[in-house]
Amino acid sequence: MTRKQKEAVFDGALKLLPEERAALAGALIESLDESVDADAEAAWGREIAKRAKDLDSGKALGVPWSEARRRILKTNGRDSS
Fold this sequence. Notes:
Elements: H1 3-14, H2 18-32, H3 38-57, H4 65-75
C-alpha cells in the first residue's frame, strides 16, 4: 500500500462516527494478536465483572475521559501543561 493510499484510508476512518472509529480501532488491535490465552481472557472477564460491580455499588468511582487521558499523558511524560 502506498503512502497516499494509507492516508486515504486514515482520512476515511476519521470520517466515521466516534463509536465506529472505536470499533474499528478495537478490531485492528485484535488483528495484531492471533493467539488467545484462555486463562488470561477468563481472568480479564472476572476483573471486568468485579470492576463493574464496584462501580454499580458505589465502591469505586469513575473519572471523566478528559481527566483519565490527562493522567495517562502525564504518567507517560507527554503532558503539555
